[in-house]
Amino acid sequence: MRVGSLEPGLEFSLPPELEAHAPPEARGLARDEVRLLVSHKQGDRLVHARFRELGEFLREGDVLVINTSGTLPAALPAFRDDGSEFRLHLSTRLPGGVWSVELRQLEGGATKPFFEVRAGEVLALPGSATVHLLAPYRMEGHPPSRRLWIAVFSFPQPYTLNPLPYLLEHGKPIRYGYVAEEWPLEFYQSVYATLPGSAEMPSAGRAFTPELITRLVAQGVLVVPLLLHTGVASLESHEPPYEEFYRVPPGTAQVVNQARAEGRRVIAVGTTVVRALETVADALGRVHPGEGWTRLVITPQRGVRVVDGILTGWHEPKATHLAMLEAIAGRRHLELAYCAALEHRYLWHEFGDLHLILP
């Protein structure tokens, strides 16, 4: 694997056959039967396992921090004035009643970003709703996005105040070209999701089952929640991660701080958890409860202050998430793990296999 010049990220070729094209249930597996590569930073030790064996690698007093955000059916049919059909992906509900959205062009059974949109355009949606594209989305210090737009929706009654029932009636989960067919929304939910709000599934926790969580708790592993609503993942090259809403409860902050004070391990379930925890951590690594919008981008230069390990999926070449993983594991260890995953044919994407990085 060759380290590229693009920061962050490792450069490697992902063979199409290593893309998970369907949920594990469609492959005859239970949720927790996906494969798990456990990589120990100390000694660069790698262990191949199944996810349901997770408890063998955790110990009493470990803290697992989970993201309880639920997945929205965030893909809607959208029509221009000339009747042409597109897919509108809702990304993030922003303050002031506006959204960031992405318009995508239909191409066979998949979609691709569509850039030929103009400010002020109004698109028709199912059920007599419309969306008004106001301006390109822009993060402070960066040029306007070519892909994301700030938009305002007009929903008919009774959906004006709460669009979730509208999305449940007319929307579908966001699906990219590597997933060959549509799957119901429940296939895109973790078993512990409590509040819908993510455009795409926080997928690191998908393999958990109620039975596995019960066994971990009985083993003495502490499981504590936070919330971070994820936006769409189809970033353009060099596009920075955008702002996302988070909430870290006081109880979670207390448990994490006590574990750190006692030398116990804090393990994030997903990159979303790392982003939320690191957002509310001070320079000494003490976590404070809070909520708001985070723009934090975690790089090896910035480092991490709270987490000791992470459970995560396998990320594509040059993905910004790889910078976060490098901050946790180090470049050399990450390269070893990804080489092993490619050699042993682990599966990528939201329905794929998982990677547990431990100290």
TrEMBL record:
GO molecular function: S-adenosylmethionine:tRNA ribosyltransferase-isomerase activity
InterPro entries for this protein: QueA, QueA_dom1, QueA_dom2, QueA_sf
Documented EC number(s): 2.4.99.17
Keywords from the UniProt entry: Cytoplasm, Glycosyltransferase, Isomerase, Queuosine biosynthesis, S-adenosyl-L-methionine, Transferase
Class of enzymatic activity (EC top level): transferase
Domain of life the protein comes from: Bacteria
SUPFAM superfamilies found in the cross-reference section: QueA-like
Biological processes, Gene Ontology terms: tRNA queuosine(34) biosynthetic process
PANTHER family according to UniProt: S-ADENOSYLMETHIONINE:TRNA RIBOSYLTRANSFERASE-ISOMERASE (PTHR30307)
Record-given protein name: S-adenosylmethionine:tRNA ribosyltransferase-isomerase
Lineage: Bacteria, Thermotogati, Deinococcota, Deinococci, Thermales
